[in-house]
Amino acid sequence: MTNVAPPLALLAEVTYRCPLQCPYCSNPLELERAKQELDTDTWLRVFDEAADLGVLQVHFSGGEPTARTDLDLLVAGASRFGLYTNLITSGVLLNEAKISALATAGLEHVQLSFQDAEAAGGDRIGGYKGGHEKKIQVAKLVRMAGLPLTLNMVVHRQNLDHLEDMIRLAVDLDAHRVEIAHVQYYGWGLTNRAALMPTRKQVETATAIVDRARERLKGVLVFDYVVPDYYARRPKSCMGGWGRRFLNINPAGKVMPCHAAETIPGLEFESVCDHSLSEIWTSSEAFRRFRGVEWMPEPCRSCDRREIDWGGCRCQALAVTGDAGNTDPACELSPNHHKMLQLAEVESDGPPPAFVYRRMGGAPRQKEAQPARDERL
Ligand code: SF4
Ligand code: SF4
């Protein structure tokens, strides 16, 4: 395929290692081992190719990207090729010297995740004792280094009732932006869906809190609010459309249209070790599979929103309907929409089950056996 517009941003998952164990982590259940990580030179070659391809931004992610001892070299390399650099981090491995080294290397922005508004909840959800306090220190150091700061808050039924306090935390820590994102149910989030799914009432309250805070904090804090699909009437434009704006490279070098795409059976993702980024972006079978509108079934095919939301999320279509080629069931026009709503209502009802924490080596066997399609509905 020729004449494919260049991607805007590259999500560089430089490692799957992470000291936290968030039960909604978007990393795959079977995590690649540290030894399968691309080396420094390969990443630098990839950033060079990305800049040539037209990519403007690199988001360093993981896992926990600061687990790599060469992160400052990677940031410096990306900067040298003219790419905007953003670090997405849990913060717990950072200190003043490391932040200073990253700033000197050219880092331009930090996104720091918090699991809750206070230590007890934050440490429990992240599965890392002392993590919350460490993050507060790191947020202060990031601001002292002169770097702009975004706080990432992933919200769900077990922390949504603290949303006001989370927003207050972002203001107190002098963040420029807060990203409040409801859990996306793939990877570990799908395994833990019943433990994380909020009630409709919680979602409505949260949306009202964000609307009021956005008004009250105009000029102080910018809000990004990612609404939960399970109670939605229309899907989000997932990744701006499959293979349209973003590409994701996993620690071993596989290139994907989004970080959950590996959950889709039958797609072969090519590696930067075997092909150039440009070849993969323009011609690889996996990128072409759901790009544009040709692949779409009805009702998307004849819908006037088909080039707005691009049919929604393929991974979500797979998780709920068993087929990644279906219309995203978050859409009211999908014949599977009622299944999604029912799932949300059933799973948010009653006390949440215990978390299955994210860890290297995969989820327990009984959880792995969970079918892609929910057979209860
Ligand atoms: S979501 Fe949590 S466990 Fe997953 S990479 Fe981020 S901090 Fe680590
Ligand atoms: S039918 Fe398809 S294109 Fe139309 S709104 Fe629903 S998901 Fe979007």
> Low-confidence segments, ≥5 residues, pLDDT <50?
364-377
Order of strands, main sheet, comes to 7-6-5-4-3-2-1-8-9
* Strand tally: 9
Q: Helix/strand/pairing class, anyone?
A: alpha/beta
Helicity level, as a percent range? Answer: 25-40%
The SSE order reads EHEHEHEHHEHEHHHEEEHHHHH
Strand content: 5-15%
Number of discrete helical segments? 14
* Cα-atom radius of gyration: 20 Å
The residue-averaged pLDDT reads 92
The largest sheet, given as strand count, sense and whether it forms a barrel, is: 9 strands, mixed
Envelope shape: globular
Q: Report the end-to-end length measured between terminal Cα atoms.
A: 40 Å
Bound molecules: iron/sulfur cluster
Task: Please give a structural write-up.
With 377 residues, this protein is an alpha/beta fold. It has helices at residues 40-53, 71-80, 96-105, 119-126, 131-144, 163-172, 188-191, 193-196, 200-216, 277-283, 285-289, 314-321, 337-348, 365-368, and strands at 9-13, 57-61, 84-89, 109-114, 149-155, 177-182, 222-226, 246-249, 255-256. A nine-stranded mixed beta sheet has the order 7-6-5-4-3-2-1-8-9. A hairpin with a 5-residue loop joins strand 8 (246-249) and strand 9. Helix 1 runs parallel beside helix 2 and helix 2 runs parallel beside helix 3. The radius of gyration is 20 Å and the shape is globular. The two termini are 40 Å apart. The structure holds iron/sulfur cluster (2 copies). One iron/sulfur cluster binds at residues 234-235, 299-300, 303, 305-306, 309, 311-312, 327-328, 331, 333.
